[in-house]
Request: fold
Amino acid sequence: MTRPPEVLPGVGDDAGVAVESAPAQAITTTQAFATTPALATTQPIPVTTTQPLPALASADLLTERARQRPPLPSLTGGRWWAACAVFVLHALVFLPVYPFQKSELFRHIHEWIPMQLGAAGVTFFFVLSGFIIYWSFKPGMTKRAFYRRRVLKIYPTHLLAAAAFIVVASVPLHRAVVWVPNLLLVHTWWPKWTTVGGLNVPSWSLAAEVLFYGSFPLLLPLVMRIPTRRLLLAMGLLMLFIVALHTSYFLWVDGPKGIANAFAPRLVPGNTSPHYELHASPAWFVQPDIPVAKSYWLSYNFPLSRLPEFFLGVLAARMVIEGRWRNTSLTWPLLTLVASYALTWVVPVNYKMSVLMLAPMTAVVATMAARDLAGVSGISAHPRVVWLGNVSFAFYLIQFPVMVVVTRYLIGGKEFGILGWAGFSLLCLVVSTALAAALYHWVDVPIMRRFARAKQR
Reply:
């Protein structure tokens, strides 16, 4: 006798894809795993109000709309801005344009565009991922279907981008440690694999996403036990845990203790641009080990350290759905986010990369969702920006291979100033966007349509 598949609250696509609203009613702690016909056939509550609502919108109306789980275009568009933040940082660091990268002008620019700019984009992705996974909650989906959708969403695009990097960087396949951990998205679980086996550098965050998706069905029952009135308290306690965790890394793990933004490109001698940025250089792939500061690795790359950020997003989604977050004004969330970003200049590295920005980033995500529910328009909800948000996942992964090609064939062996760097950065932006669009429309969408349909009981 075979065991029937275990049912869990399922999800749709990631935040980059507009998710069809499920005909589901409000989720309560007693309904979390309900699969009765009554729940499965409940019709959406009709919504007739289309006028924008005030900054503190009617709780009843927002909750009514949230129960239908409509698409959230502002959050999809928001992915593009986060991806752009990552791109700007990568273009500055990964395009070895000499002598510009060795100039005083570059040093001043990098002071204002430090590592934590890209880290802020990744933090947004992690919180948003938790929010959208819970928002796309579809009663009746099995764990197997949930995991199948997550694998199909992540791995095809990741594998194609990794294959492109292997080809353009001439990665030595005889050294399995260089590429196998990255292809399997397990490389950030061990410091050596994180560096030597980093391969397509941006893909490190996908190793954390794999953990997020793997843990979601297992920890969801605990999340659902939190009473609605205690959601804000739960988020506060989770934030305190995150601060305590990174403080322990700072106090008791070897690594930098100062507040300096000690991040810079890895440079080689001379004023002639190299044909390879060091992360894509043959010299990189033959190293037996490339040390990384343990406290930095634990705070930034280690998947378990980033897991609470995902569940902050999950709790934020519950806050919006259950009427505990009604604010639709982005003014204070954005001002607080800017202030927290500014504070990263005066704290140790363990707090620079995500901790200070987490609470305001979560508020920004929840507010953008509330704005969509309230019918408040904004630039992130513009159709063109939403389209860019849809292709942002592929854009995030393909940008580094594109930079490797541009470096190898256009930059290497020559000398350029800031205008040269700006021109090559623009070229990488255009080419990466075009390739991302091709990956999204010709790989991601067809695969999800063909193979990722959830099987309902």
About this structure: Residues 1-7, 9-51, 53-57 have pLDDT under 50 and may be disordered.
